Amino acid sequence: MSYYKLLGLEHEPFSTSPDPRFFFLSAAHRAALYRLRISVRLQRGLSLVLGDVGTGKTTLSRCLATTLPSDGPIDVHVILNPYFTSDQEFLVALMEAFHLDVPSPVPPVRTLLASIERHLFSRSVEAGRTVTLLIDEAQQLQPSNLELLRALLNYETHNTKLLQLVLLAQLEFLPAIRAIRNLWDRISLKYVLNPLDEQETKELIRYRLKQAGFAEREPLFADEAIRAIHDATQGYPRRIALLCHDALERLVMDHQPVVTADLIRSLVHRERELHTLAVPAA
After folding, report:
1. Paired sense of beta strands 164-169 and 187-193, if any
2. Residue 203's domain is classified under what CATH number?
3. First vs last Cα of the chain: how many Å apart?
4. Which helix (H) or strand (E) is 274 found in, with range?
5. Across 136-174, where does the E strand assignment appear?
6. Quick check: 183 and 149 in contact, CB under 8 A?
7. What residues make up the domain containing 241?
């Protein structure tokens, strides 16, 4: 039996899969989601979200993808892990994301771009839809891929842009996109996701437990444990989830009623020891 069932939970509360049901909206995430939805509705073109690994970018993109259709006639398309070996491969991935048929043999880049342009015009102008593309892990894009996206952003009528583009990337992406000045200047929204503070860490833990079906009679995590979790994870949601998962497993194994600061410190110490063993001596 899974540990969470032994705790009376219906679901795994601290999975690192980007399940929108367990996405805790901190003040920063709520602001990002709100501003991105506004940017898409107003057809502003290009939006950029930056954040370190584990700050919730992927889950934010999933949440955005599920909420945008309720804002109006919006087509939402998503590309994950956009590593491509050629511009042709990149444009084929775009066509597939837009549910377009790709001819065989695959035509040259110019022909693929023209096909995408016709699709954007058909959906945006003729059908009155807002075509939106979300690209997660955008730091994997090649400079030539970014140039093609810039070309797609050139497609517009007198009063609307035919493509709404949201790029979500790690902070290392910043120099790459700033180097393409005529793309950088097109960004209508720039947003940086930061780690959670201690209070938000506490709220995240409680929220996830509640979503998993925990009827909080007595807290599963002592306040001192939450402080230790925040100190150890520096407020990164993915790290918090991993540490809390390990803590609940240990709680069940040790037949203890509550996660304590000592338990958290022992888990952190063990993880550091394992990391030390895994790193070869110089």
Report:
1. unpaired
2. 1.10.8
3. 43
4. helix 261-278
5. 164-169
6. yes
7. 3-14+196-274
- Could you list the pLDDT tens digit for every one of the 282 residues in the chain? 576 777 878 889 998 887 778 888 899 999 999 999 999 999 999 999 999 998 999 989 999 999 999 988 999 999 999 999 999 999 999 999 999 999 999 999 999 999 999 999 999 999 999 999 999 999 999 999 999 999 999 998 888 899 999 999 999 999 999 999 999 999 999 999 999 999 999 999 999 999 999 887 788 999 999 999 999 999 999 999 999 999 999 998 998 889 999 999 999 998 887 766 655 555
Q: Are 125 and 162 in contact (CB under 8 A)?
A: yes
Q: Are 70 and 171 within one domain?
A: yes
The SS3 of residue 117 is: helix
Whether 279 maps to a domain, the answer reads no
Is residue 227 domain-resident?
yes
Question: Last residue of some domain: 158, 193, 228?
Answer: 193
Residues 159 and 147 in one domain: yes
Select from 166, 193, 220 the last residue of a domain. 193
> Is residue 76 domain-shared with residue 167, that is, in the same domain?
yes
Q: In this structure, are 106 and 78 located in the same domain?
A: yes
Residue 249 lies in a domain: yes
Cα dihedral 215/25/28/136 (nearest 10): 140
Q: State the DSSP code for 99.
A: T
Q: Tokens for 67, please give them.
A: 């909420």
Closest C-alpha to 240, from 193, 192, 198: 198
Residue 119's φ and ψ, nearest 5 degrees, are -65, -45
**pTM of the full predicted structure?**
0.89
Angle, alpha carbons 75-78-84 (nearest 5°): 135
C-alpha torsion 274→56→223→209, nearest 10? -100
Q: Is the residue at 19 inside a domain?
A: no
